[in-house]
Design goal:
Order of helices and strands: HEEHEHHHEH
Strand content: 5-15%
Number of strands: 4
Mean pLDDT: 90
Shape: globular
Number of domains: 2
Strand order of the largest sheet: 1-2
Largest sheet: 2 strands, antiparallel
CATH topology of the largest domain: Rossmann fold
Low-confidence stretches: none
CATH superfamily of the largest domain: P-loop containing nucleotide triphosphate hydrolases
CATH architecture of the largest domain: 3-Layer(aba) Sandwich
CATH class of the largest domain: Alpha Beta
Radius of gyration: 16 Å
Oligomer: single chain
Structural class: alpha+beta
């Protein structure tokens, strides 16, 4: 599978830099404008850490990856996260922030949780997503 370039960085879709979190600040309006035509064509997978900025009409299914807090802490620490960024990410997982956001933004029946703790989870998740995609294509063609 060919990976698409990160449109945030290639499309200049950011509005400054957050020193505290050590990351670009996303310009949500520019991102939605950039993706609008691509999403209308269909067949697009969006990988993002939130969902409240995306229109409900764009998605047929939403997968929320869930991770055990201790595994998440170690994973993010290995990536170089520290301080507030590390703490906030772990707290988001503890309080199910992304799951709650997805359930508020989209119809409950299209939101699915998937475990993301081990390499085996990754394989199983990929199989499940592929199966869902194949079934969706069958049902809509």
């Amino acid at each position: 599978m060919r990976k698409k370039p990160n449109i945030l960085l290639t499309g200049q879709l950011y509005d400054g830099f957050d020193e505290e979190y050590n990351c670009p600040i996303l310009d949500e309006d520019k991102v939605v404008d950039e993706l609008e035509d691509k999403m209308a064509e269909g067949g697009v997978i969006v990988d993002y850490h939130g969902c409240d900025l995306f229109p409900e009409r764009w998605f047929h299914i939403v997968f929320v990856l869930r991770t055990d807090n201790t595994k998440l802490y170690t994973r993010l620490e290995t990536r170089g996260y520290s301080g507030k960024k590390l703490q906030d990410n772990v707290q988001c997982e503890i309080f199910q922030t992304i799951l709650e956001e997805a359930l508020e933004a989209y119809q409950e029946e299209i939101v699915h949780q998937l475990p993301s703790n081990t390499p085996e989870d990754l394989e199983q998740n990929m199989e499940q997503i592929v199966q869902w995609t194949e079934q969706w294509i069958k049902d809509h063609n």
